[in-house]
């Protein structure tokens, strides 16, 4: 099975030969070129992005002899304004459509899923979601100093909004009708939509229940994507710890609190570790001194002490929060509601366990056989917080996104199944033989350029699809990229993903595994968008080419130093706005620009990673310091590198490997970047020697 249909594992000692696989490449290039680069696209791309063939200075500060590339359209003035956030589109939201979601038809280009613009054919999966931006229309942001007024305003705002009414608590009859008395396996696409609705209801129910607990914290009750406005909430303050980010911004007079960069506010039993979400419990200090909260972060958390009221559970008491607290009803969460929501799902007993694939921070993944159909699938058991009853909201988000999104580069979630209790909930996913991290650890030589192109194209297609649909993945890394022996790459693990809206809002910085975390996050930027994912893609591209993580820092400071060492220390000139970032006040050693080419030369006599001029240009664009200038997924897909020899390898010709996921994974001995939650836990336990940038 692991050998795939190629009759055996293709070894990886012939990388360079593969580069010369020009026959297939040429064919696929013609095809690729026809579909991916029709002249009208190229013209418009050039108009927008400039001709990258002329001399220019790279936006990460490196002077480079290729062409100047004018800054891309401003992220705030591009798609974000043109298209209503939350509008689901599988197409490329390019300028040709004025940024509106295009009606597209998916097609395979060189074995890689692509999209083409289609005049009128509606996308079968086009779907409108409720936009977080809707909630911003008044531009009002509740202030900490006026919590009581905010409470009233929240009520008013909620009453005004043209969104669906608050979802009723689910009941058995609703669920019975949802399931239609049939197995979820029998459900067709329309019923699938019902399942998604059900998940949305459940997510909303959780939000509502939290609202019941914290009525003053929530101003969005009904939107499935309500959490996207996470930081608009107003929370009474409690000084748990002081963030150097805030110190930098506000000096020593700060009144409100922010945990340290990415600090996780843990539940009542901190020894049990943080909540399911990396976002969970993260409190952000806003520039104006108000306290802003990452919405989802409260969902799964319990009070720190039993006698704390829920509204003030993470925060120090002051008179406002006391007043607030006195109005706060006791938590009313009932696990029964969750159980009800899961009725109609098949039982996990209908699957035969074959082996445990891997255990991540948030779930355990098993390889199983569907007893009914014989199909091999992956089951991800959702880890529940021990400290609190209830279904983790972030797991709901992950299920919700994965059930909603269908794309060849995104792992397909088929259904949700349950065990004997609500604590045993599983996502049934298509089974993939490997993840990219595991594959690279077993490879003797790194991928060649044509293979990297094949993988990067698939990855970019998936990321473009997410961004077009207003979702940030926020944890792109090699272990979250699954591979099968048909050469297909799929993005998984949407545990940290989140919808974003326009205008940009502050989000928690504690996202993205350290090694793949964008510099603006490391430096404490509170507003970020899709380009944080693009930085991760740059790190992944470099890792594919060299088989080594590009920046493997141990702490935030170490990570920044590693980045600066290779790309140079940024300054206001190459990154306008840099000096205003909280972390920029730290005196970093001045490093010269830009040593990336040393790592990826155009030719190598030692068998090291090589990268053409165009490939290097793309890598530089992905690793551009200034987020405004960093390349988008859409533009990256059209990059010249994918059109030059060696052409992207077709998926069918990609190397195959023994299926790692058919064995229980050994304890990982490999260098591993802690994920954001793990990182937080280590910080709390003091096991990161070199404290973080803002500690
Ligand atoms: N559909 C799948 N098929 C095969 N293996 C999978 C599948 N989904 C996940 N895995 C394996 O399980 C691992 C963990 O999965 P996932 O990243 O979804 O869990 P997690 O708990 O969120 O992990 P993390 O700690 O990295 O955030 C993946 O790296 C991959 O090796």
Automatic annotation (TrEMBL):
Keyword Ribonucleoprotein appears in the UniProt entry: no
Molecular function terms, GO-annotated: ATP binding; cyclin-dependent protein serine/threonine kinase activity; RNA polymerase II CTD heptapeptide repeat kinase activity
PROSITE patterns: PROTEIN_KINASE_DOM, PROTEIN_KINASE_ST
CDD domains cross-referenced by the UniProt entry: STKc_CDC2L1
Keywords in alphabetical order: ATP-binding, Kinase, Nucleotide-binding, Phosphoprotein, Serine/threonine-protein kinase, Transferase
Comp. bias (Basic and acidic residues): 41-58
Cellular component, GO, one term: nucleus
InterPro entries xref list: CDK (IPR050108), CDK11/PITSLRE_STKc (IPR045267), Kinase-like_dom_sf (IPR011009), Prot_kinase_dom (IPR000719), Ser/Thr_kinase_AS (IPR008271)
Gene Ontology BP, a term: regulation of mitotic cell cycle
Reaction(s) catalysed by this chain's protein: [DNA-directed RNA polymerase] + ATP = phospho-[DNA-directed RNA polymerase] + ADP + H(+); L-seryl-[protein] + ATP = O-phospho-L-seryl-[protein] + ADP + H(+); L-threonyl-[protein] + ATP = O-phospho-L-threonyl-[protein] + ADP + H(+)
Biased composition (Basic residues): 29-40
Membrane-spanning segments: none
Domain Protein kinase: 351-642
Region called Disordered, residue ranges: 1-142, 226-331, 672-695
Biased composition (Low complexity): 87-101
Lineage top rank: taxon: Eukaryota
PANTHER family: CELL DIVISION PROTEIN KINASE, CYCLIN-DEPENDENT KINASE G-1
Family affiliation: Belongs to the protein kinase superfamily. CMGC Ser/Thr protein kinase family. CDC2/CDKX subfamily.
Protein name: CDKG1-1 protein
Source species of the chain: Phyllostachys edulis
Lineage: Eukaryota, Viridiplantae, Streptophyta, Embryophyta, Tracheophyta
